[in-house]
């Protein structure tokens, strides 16, 4: 701890890069569940989070897309919106957006310099140093409460819900998109256990919207909502959605809720996006009915039509055709397998994938292997990456049962070389897909789009 002595006399950080390096320097403190350090930071900063209206979004999959729909529609209907999401796809500033734009680098630097003495002081207490994600969350709150003051903040959980750092806020409405088996090392091994963690964002009297459909999950959500005297709006019960049709660029669905029904069109591909858009619509209806939000229908529908989200069935390049999709858990893989043949015609499917080492990848591969002709295994450029040979071991075990008879496997740890191999193999009639952890998607996307300032990660 010696290096913290006299911390208050440190000279301020001078550049954006120094600020990001200082925040990332807190990564070794890991993810430490619990809100005690957040409480202390908020107290020392004058409880800025109490001045804002939050929509708190949790769930296993679909959080990012649901946040994107909410942001786009609220902006289209004339509201100012803060959006806090993670992990980011291109640049550290992506996670703090105001009206669709990243936080300016100099604002991030100013706020980091304000936070640093507070963080250093807490590091000297028995609570230990705030983590990288705690500091980022505090930075977001300061930005929204004191710099840009949006009408509403779309607030995505990092992990789980109950003990997640973002749970410091008391939202106007909570969303739990769905519940699946992900982060079982931290959140528990069963759907009920994971649902209990996610349901931890349900606050007394605050309405909650969910598209979860497994009976044991619904039971947990119902019980938690009842205990908190919160109204639960559940897909299939209080609101429903029915797919109408899809063509290459748009898909439409019929939404029917407790207050009204309407047909909605979205440009995002995949049946799961209809569920995410419906959840967003139900949230907007709660804001309209109970919080005096005024939204013009035409603008609302336009917002849904215009929503896009990087790295989700995102087509980049036509020759060869390459799709990026951040499916990294079994539910994500299942959705990807269902969506690809619906939207694309192809002769061979070439899949490049890289994973983090903290996941069970067998069930992901069981879903995906049956449709793959060439599998390119690689490693994301990230500290928790899964060793490519360990991934190969799992593939070799599953290949006889789930793989096509002529499945070809290429092992290339360097993702840049792997991407070149994918491009070379993917001919005019084929489809190339890059999937797995968003840390890999972020790098590949930056490379394909020639984004020079691509940084990535948490």
From TrEMBL:
The keyword Repeat does not apply. Pfam families: Mur_ligase_C (PF02875), Mur_ligase_M (PF08245). Keywords: ATP-binding, Ligase, Magnesium, Metal-binding, Nucleotide-binding. Residues 311-437 form the Mur ligase C-terminal domain. It is an enzyme of class 6 (ligase). Belongs to the folylpolyglutamate synthase family. This is tetrahydrofolate synthase. It comes from Paenibacillus macquariensis. The lineage of its organism: Bacteria, Bacillati, Bacillota, Bacilli, Bacillales.
């Amino acid at each position: 701890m010696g290096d913290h002595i006299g911390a208050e006399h440190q000279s301020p950080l001078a550049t954006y890069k120094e600020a990001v390096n200082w925040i990332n320097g807190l990564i070794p403190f890991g993810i430490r569940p619990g809100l005690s350090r957040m409480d202390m930071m908020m107290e020392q900063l004058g409880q800025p989070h109490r001045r804002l209206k939050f929509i708190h979004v949790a769930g296993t999959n679909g959080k990012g897309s649901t946040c994107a729909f909410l942001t786009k529609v609220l902006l289209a209907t004339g509201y100012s919106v803060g959006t806090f999401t993670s992990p980011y796809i291109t640049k550290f500033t992506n996670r703090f957006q105001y009206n669709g734009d990243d936080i300016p680098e100099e604002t991030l630097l100013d706020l980091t310099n304000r936070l640093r003495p507070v963080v250093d002081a807490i590091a000297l207490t028995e609570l230990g140093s705030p983590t990288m994600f705690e500091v980022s969350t505090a930075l977001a709150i300061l930005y929204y409460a004191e710099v840009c003051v949006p009408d509403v903040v779309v607030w995505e959980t990092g992990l789980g819900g109950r003990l997640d750092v973002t749970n410091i806020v008391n939202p106007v409405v909570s969303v739990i998109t769905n519940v699946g088996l992900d982060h079982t090392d931290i959140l528990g091994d069963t759907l009920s256990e994971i649902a209990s963690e996610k349901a931890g964002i349900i606050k007394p009297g605050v309405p909650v919207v969910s598209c979860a459909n497994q009976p044991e999950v619904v039971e947990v959500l119902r019980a938690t909502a009842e205990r908190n005297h919160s109204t639960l709006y559940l897909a299939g019960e209080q609101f429903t959605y029915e797919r109408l049709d899809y063509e290459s660029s748009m898909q439409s669905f019929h939404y029917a809720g407790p207050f009204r029904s309407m047909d909605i069109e979205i440009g995002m591909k995949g049946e799961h996006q209809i569920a995410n858009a419906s959840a967003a619509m139900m949230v907007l209806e709660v804001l309209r009915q109970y919080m005096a939000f005024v939204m013009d229908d035409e603008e609302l529908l336009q917002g849904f039509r215009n929503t896009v989200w990087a790295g989700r069935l995102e087509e980049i390049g036509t020759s060869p055709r390459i799709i990026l999709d951040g499916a990294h858990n079994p539910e994500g893989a299942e959705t990807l397998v269902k969506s690809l043949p619906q939207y694309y015609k192809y002769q061979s499917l070439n899949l490049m994938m890289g994973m983090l080492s903290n996941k069970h990848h067998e069930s992901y591969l069981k879903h995906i292997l049956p449709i793959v002709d060439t599998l390119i295994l690689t490693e994301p450029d990230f500290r928790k990456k899964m060793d490519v040979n360990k991934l190969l071991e799992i593939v070799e075990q599953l290949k006889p049962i789930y793989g096509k008879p002529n499945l070809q496997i290429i092992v290339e740890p360097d993702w840049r070389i792997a991407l070149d191999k994918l491009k070379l193999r993917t001919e005019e009639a084929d489809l190339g897909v890059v999937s797995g952890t968003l840390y890999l998607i972020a790098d590949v996307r930056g490379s394909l789009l020639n984004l020079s300032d691509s940084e990535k990660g948490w």
